[in-house]
Amino acid sequence: MGRSSSPVYLRVLEDLRMRIREGILAPGSRVPSRNAIIARYGVGETAAKHALQVLTTEGLIEARAGSGSYVRQPPLSRHLDHDRLYFPGSPFGLGESEPFEQSGPGDHPAARRVTWEHQTEHVVPPPSISRRLGSGSPRTAAPGTDAAALVTVTRYLLTADGEPVQLATSYEPAGLTEGTAVALPEQGPLAGRGVIERMAYIGIQVDQVLEEVTVRQSLLAEADALALPPGSPVLHIERLHLSGADPVETADIVIPADRFRLRYRFAIPGSTR
Fold first, then answer.
1. What is the DSSP letter of 85?
2. Sign for the pseudo-dihedral over CA of 129, 115, 225, 57
3. For the chain, domain boundaries
4. What is the pLDDT of residue 101?
5. CATH of 78-96+112-263, one of 3.90.700.10, 3.40.1410.10, 3.40.50.1820, 3.40.50.12780
6. Strand-strand pairing, 260-263 and 78-81
7. What is the pLDDT of residue 177?
8. Is pLDDT at 143 greater than 60 in this prediction?
9. Average pLDDT in the chain
10. What's the CA gap between 23 and 272, in Å, rounded?
11. Is the pLDDT of residue 11 over 70?
12. Which residues pair with 157 in a beta bridge?
């Protein structure tokens, strides 16, 4: 068989990543130095340096000045549940059966203090959002208005006990809700009730929700807001609410990948539970 054309550093990276995840290199233990990697794996300095950089970016190791690199203690992984359709700005809510620290026998989980910060404005959407919302659809603008050129964008930051949990940026065609009681997602009679219920209030039936989940490196602003090292991996959920073939809302939801797992629940037709 021919020789692999994969970059040399990947062989080093995969082995070190495996040793960390299987506990061979336990949290707090020192990672082989650059020189040790060169000698052990028979690679050059560039490959050794690149492998260590990727492990740092992935949050698996941390560099300590003058001492080397060490395996990070992995953060406690918690669930974000998907079955909360009316959670403001995002369908994901903190699970109610998460681990907690006990200080004595008989202790019970303390309720987390969950808060949202949000900001809403009308803006000209970037091309990617225009494509998602299908600007030009007759459903997206009220007749005789200029709202077709604008979207209502609401940015949310969810925290739990002061810890950043997720960012959500929601976009709605401004002409769709202009002049109605639900024009602003966080004001009016259905403030914070979610896209499906708000749209139903003005006679628009949302009948489909599409989501695409990917893993990518965080942008600088995202890392800052979520208290992450720059470039840390995040879960990116691209969401689209549809009424028939017409998009009525799209959102970008960003969640720290090393802190949370997404948990989906699906109702079974005819089930009473």
1. T
2. negative
3. 8-71, 78-96+112-263
4. 38
5. 3.40.1410.10
6. parallel
7. 94
8. no
9. 83
10. 44
11. yes
12. 117, 167
φ, ψ for residue 102 (rounded to 5)? Answer: -100, 140
How far apart are alpha carbons 171 and 177 in whole angstroms? 12
Phi, psi of 93 (to 5 degrees): -130, 155
Task: Return contacts of 3-11, CB within 8 angstroms, 24+ apart.
Answer: 7/47, 7/50, 8/43, 8/44, 8/47, 9/43, 9/46, 9/47, 9/48, 9/50, 9/51, 9/54, 11/41, 11/43
Residue 131 has pLDDT above 70, yes or no: yes
For residue 268, which phi and psi values (nearest 5 degrees)? -95, 125
- pLDDT digits over 71-90, tens only? 988 766 777 877 655 455 56
Whether pLDDT at 65 is above 50: yes
Q: Which of 87, 51, 88 minimizes the C-alpha distance to 69? A: 51
Is CATH 1.10.10.10 what the domain over 8-71 is classified as, yes or no? yes
101-123 pLDDT, tens digit each? 333 444 444 556 778 899 999 99
Residue 237, SS3 per DSSP: strand
pLDDT tens digits, 221-251: 999 999 988 888 899 999 999 999 999 999 9
CA distance 273 to 258: 32
Query: Which DSSP string do the residues of 217-229 spell out, in sequence order?
Result: EPPHHHHHHTT--
Residues 186 and 120 sit within 8 Å (Cβ to Cβ): yes
Q: What is the pLDDT of residues 12-48, one digit of tens each?
A: 999 999 999 899 999 999 999 999 999 999 999 999 9
Q: How far apart are CA 111 and CA 144, in angstroms?
A: 49
- Is residue 263 within 8 Å of residue 81, measured between CB atoms? yes
